[in-house]
Amino acid sequence: LSPTVNFALRISFYCALCLVVSALAAVACLLVNGGRTVKNMRIIKAFVKTFKYFFGLRFEVKGLENFKVEGPALIVSNHQSILDMMGLMEVLPDNCVQVGKKELMYMGSVGLIMYLGGVIFINRKSTSSAKMVMSEVAKTMVTENTKVWVYPEGTRNCTGDLLPFKKGAFHLAVQAQVPVIPVVYSSFTTFYNPKTKLFTSGKIKVEILPPIETKGLTSDDVTDLSDRCFSTMRETLFRLSGHPGEAKDSS
Ligand SMILES: CCCCCCCC/C=C\CCCCCCCC(=O)SCCNC(=O)CCNC(=O)[C@H](O)C(C)(C)COP(=O)(O)OP(=O)(O)OC[C@H]1O[C@@H](n2cnc3c(N)ncnc32)[C@H](O)[C@@H]1OP(=O)(O)O
Ligand SMILES: CCCCCCCC/C=C\CCCCCCCC(=O)OC[C@@H](O)COP(=O)(O)O
């Protein structure tokens, strides 16, 4: 099988699996919890955690104890691919919803299962409406004691480095006065590269870093907070991916 065909088959299988299993999971969610609620994430997680076996992926997780903070928190992580959903569900704490682009809602059963799980949809093309949605989330996450997971790069990036962070996640953490917990996944580049049609089995290292407090911070501190998270996460990314630093780029 040529690598291109192999890649296409494996990605198609992944999408088909997502569509079919979402439909099944949606039925389970509706029967058990009756509608849109973060409680459905437990069901979704149980289904998605089996996906890794189909693709020969292994996760090596460190720092899970850092999720054990009392009450709400903001989780930020790097975003490499549509495959990230597997890594997300591998470590997802209870009572945690993700922020996603609203286009995902229209992916058939996948959109439905995200809706049922309580995913917060934002319109990235309208900063003002996205900010409004996220300010609302800053209030509800405190009253409803939920954690929120945001990909601060705002889009997928599979280069082995981080894109500059968008500010929304950090405004959210400061407005809600909740700690920021960074999560870093090692680079996929050794086993997954859509440009070169590479998709083999592989191991992914995941590290949940210690929470960064935001009590007392104001909107003036958002840039600092974002920069701090960015540099910690970038260092961790290079360490987990086996790069000694930014100077050494495997591409
Ligand atoms: C059972 C089987 C199942 C199988 C199927 C699977 C189902 C699994 C179920 C569930 C898994 C769910 C998985 C979901 C995954 C989704 C992934 C994605 O979709 S990633 C894309 C969307 N995510 C984001 O975009 C990040 C969030 N983005 C932001 O936070 C941005 O900041 C945003 C959109 C709010 C604005 O973006 P800007 O592009 O305009 O850029 P900026 O520079 O950040 O903001 C402009 C100015 O506004 C200020 N600003 C931003 N937010 C503010 C705020 N809240 N308050 C005040 N100012 C704010 C900033 O400080 C900046 O101003 P100054 O340059 O600093 O002066
Ligand atoms: C009836 C309509 C049928 C539509 C068929 C669509 C088939 C696709 C099915 C499953 C694909 C698996 C989806 C897993 C969810 C992962 C979410 C995700 O990672 O979205 C990418 C988004 O964060 C970043 O957006 P961009 O990188 O800016 O883009």
TrEMBL record:
Belongs to the 1-acyl-sn-glycerol-3-phosphate acyltransferase family. This is 1-acyl-sn-glycerol-3-phosphate acyltransferase. It comes from Lonchura striata (white-rumped munia). The gene is AGPAT2. The chain crosses the membrane at residues 9-32, 104-122. Its EC number is 2.3.1.51. The keyword Oxidoreductase does not apply. Pfam families: Acyltransferase. The keyword Nuclease does not apply. Keywords: Acyltransferase, Lipid biosynthesis, Lipid metabolism, Membrane, Phospholipid biosynthesis, Phospholipid metabolism, Signal, Transferase, Transmembrane, Transmembrane helix. SMART domains: PlsC. The HXXXXD motif is essential for acyltransferase activity and may constitute the binding site for the phosphate moiety of the glycerol-3-phosphate. GO terms for cellular component: endoplasmic reticulum; membrane. It comes from the Eukaryota. GO terms for biological process: phosphatidic acid biosynthetic process. Coiled coil: none annotated.
